[in-house]
Specification:
This protein has 584 residues and is an alpha+beta fold. Helix 3 crosses helix 4 (430-441). The longest helix has 19 residues, at 548-566.
Length: 584
Amino acid sequence: MQLLAAPCTLPAIAELAPDRGCFVGAADDRCEIFAWDVARGTARQVTDRPGLGTDVADVEPGGERLWWFDDDRTGRGSWRIQPWEGGADRPGLPGTPPALNAGLAMAADGTAAVGLIDDRGFSVRLRTPEGRTHTVLTTRGGGELIDLTPDGSLLAVEQETAVRVLDRSGTTVAELPGPVWSAGFRPTDGPPLLLLLAEDDDGYRLGTWTPQAGVRPVEWCRFESEASASWTPDGRVLVRQDRRGRSDLHLVDLDRKRRDALPAPAGTVLDARMQPGDDLHLVWTDTRTPPVLRTSSGRRPPGMPELPSLDMPLTIDDRWTPGPGGRIHTLLTAPANRPGPWPTVFLVHGGPFQQDRDAYDPAVVLLTAAGFAVARVNYRGSTGYGPAWRNAFDAGVGLPQVADLAAVRADLVREQLADPDRTGLAGWSWGGYLTLLALGTQPELWRAGAAVHPVADSAAAFRAGTPALRSLDTRLFGGTPDQQPHRYAQASPMTYVDAVRAPVLLVAGGSDVKCPPEQVVRYAQALRARGLDPELLEPDSGHDSRLADEQAMVLTAVVSFLGVQLGGGLPLNGHVGARTVRPV
């Protein structure tokens, strides 16, 4: 039974040459980039990096060349370009030192810009049509390059929750204070028009910016929960809204002041884009169905395999629990052929600004097949429930979230759905951090915890992390560890390590720059010093692996560990096929 799905992301299509595209496909045990001849329905493998794989690429607006990001296990690398028909690779921006990718944008005139993050902070480098390169922005902290105007005259970047517009010399044209995010410049002819999504107390609304009129809110187009937007080729706006663990799609015509709901299958749309000819492309999934590319035209890249929906006896219920900060939404998946109360795993999502959805997760499938119920809790800070829920960090970092986990656990135990003697936790990244924090602050509730690539020491992770994550922590904690030592200590799993009673599985990626492995290893050593013997895996991987064997190894270890510690368990040899990265 293959449970890890083939890679499924939206293909990139050349804006001015819609018969040319590229996509991330499966090549042996990893992801690689393929050029797609849309008209002929053929594909050509572009990259071949055994032991690494490749999963970031784009095609120039005119379709002449493909750009792909040549990174190492830490995520640091540089852009390379290759003729769309094939040929030798060469550097996209010669002389640019390796860094973390923070965006790529290309204009029809041949101008290209890249966003990069290194130890010094965020920068943007621009390459002119003649091939000359220069730096247009350097700043401390994180950031992301969003887009170039079609003529290459203006750039848009995001920094924290604000947007800045620059000209190609690096001069700031406008600064748009947040919370606001950019969805890029309108691709059609005419004056520059930047699409915005702004947050206020009541929700989210579209807006626009032009050099002449500045920011103009689109008051008639509001959404109660988080949304992402993209331009269609003809200048309309496609909106994907995350709402209570599922997705809605809308097509917005700003000129006609019209908003229409688009039909979407029940479940989750992970990404959506309107291609030329009103060909709607979307990546869709639900709890039983691995992510699949669906197109309204029926055209899809060749060799992009998909797994069918799993025919398994399981139930999926939405539960709402009164909590200390409001009603908490939980997706509860349980075996349909076994009565409760079940041994229960709280599978804690990453983030912090993410959510659990009605979406496929191989860990959910394996745990349910082994007889566990799986609770996916959208605690305070999760997206999909409006600004107040997303921004509920006033009571501290981490502690409100684990309080919500405890409230849901009490509800499931009270309703005789969860076995109180067999409840555990598992999480990746921020979810791994909350797993460790709950084990230390609520030791009487949890019988086991598995934390993959977690933050185990908040201050140490800050000092060793990337500029983008340091910037996020500074916002969440109200300062750096030197400025707010009490807040970092209060939110750090290391502070509560002496209280941990349950068995712990830790996974520390040797090349992880987001949640550095040293602070995870020190946490394991602290557990050993007080008589606990945690299981510690140290694969030579980054925060997100593209290799099937690494993904399968970690998933197998987590599910087997929980099976042993909480009772039950499923023999996994031969049960985990592999091809994609588990979301964090």
